[in-house]
């Protein structure tokens, strides 16, 4: 049982998501963090999905802290407001506190977040008032227009540390280019009518993708 619920707000295309609830203790912190007091000693989640862009919706990381439940030891001596959600990309990275909304009681409930990156998540006890990162690293505002288009699309973003990858419907890479300004024009005039995928890549990870229709 994954012990995690997903509520999709918008579905633009087929997506595959895999959620694993590992019934072993997650790794401890690599470096001391005064805002993380205690990490779960019983389980953690691993999430993977395709396409490799950030998922948006409502994600509920559920917990049960009655005696003999997985999260009983974690919450002893603390209140529901002390339960926090941690994230790391993989075992080479350290755990970070991410923004979440607590729902329920200290004994049973969930932590809700609205953006998910592939990686690992676990419950912890700590102080979420001093979160130093946004809900998910690497998530910014991106927009693309016109879509559908007969000639080109313009990508708007405030982040210049990015790359554009353009694929056809068969997954063939057609274009790879860095983003050099807040407005980037992508020409489709030399390509046939059909569906194309534009991926926005940051630090070798896809953070957003768009399905573009050329008419």
Keywords:
17 strands; elongated; single chain; 1 helix; 4-stranded antiparallel β-sheet; Immunoglobulin-like; about 220 residues; mainly beta
Report on the structure:
- The chain has 215 residues and is mainly beta.
- It has two domains: 4-130, no CATH class; 142-214, Sandwich (Immunoglobulin-like), CATH 2.60.40.10.
- It is 2% helix and 51% strand.
- The chain is built from one helix and 17 strands.
- The protein has one helix at residues 72-75, and strands at 4-8, 16-22, 36-39, 44-50, 55-64, 83-88, 96-98, 101-104, 108-116, 119-126, 142-145, 152-157, 163-168, 173-178, 183-187, 194-202, 205-214.
- The strands form four sheets. Strands 2, 3, 4, 6, 7 and 10 form a six-stranded antiparallel β-sheet that branches.
- Strand 6 and strand 7 form a beta hairpin.
- The radius of gyration is 20 Å and the shape is elongated.
- The relative contact order is 0.17.
- The model is unreliable at 132-139 (pLDDT under 50).
Q: What average pLDDT do the residues reach?
A: 84
> Strand content of the residues, in percent?
over 45%
Classification by helices and strands: mainly beta
Query: What's the total count of β strands?
Result: 17
């Amino acid at each position: 049982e994954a012990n995690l619920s997903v509520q999709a707000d918008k579905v633009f295309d087929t997506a595959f998501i895999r959620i694993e609830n590992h019934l072993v203790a997650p790794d401890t912190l690599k470096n001391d963090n005064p805002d993380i007091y205690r990490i779960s000693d019983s389980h953690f989640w691993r999430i993977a999905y395709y396409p490799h862009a950030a998922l948006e919706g409502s994600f509920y990381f559920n917990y049960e802290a009655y005696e003999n439940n997985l999260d009983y030891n974690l919450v002893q001596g603390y209140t529901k407001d002390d339960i926090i959600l941690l994230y790391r990309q993989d075992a080479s990275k350290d755990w970070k506190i991410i923004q979440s909304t607590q729902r329920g009681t200290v004994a049973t409930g969930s932590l809700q977040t609205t953006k998910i990156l592939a990686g690992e998540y676990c419950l912890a006890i700590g102080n979420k008032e001093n979160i130093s990162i946004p809900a998910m690293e690497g998530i910014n505002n991106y927009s693309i227009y016109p879509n559908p288009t007969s000639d080109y699309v313009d990508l708007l973003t405030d982040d210049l540390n990015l790359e554009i990858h353009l694929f056809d419907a068969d997954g063939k890479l057609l274009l790879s280019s860095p983003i050099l300004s807040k407005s980037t024009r992508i020409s489709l005039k030399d390509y046939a009518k059909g569906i194309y995928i534009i991926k926005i890549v940051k630090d070798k990870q896809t953070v957003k993708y768009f399905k573009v229709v050329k008419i």
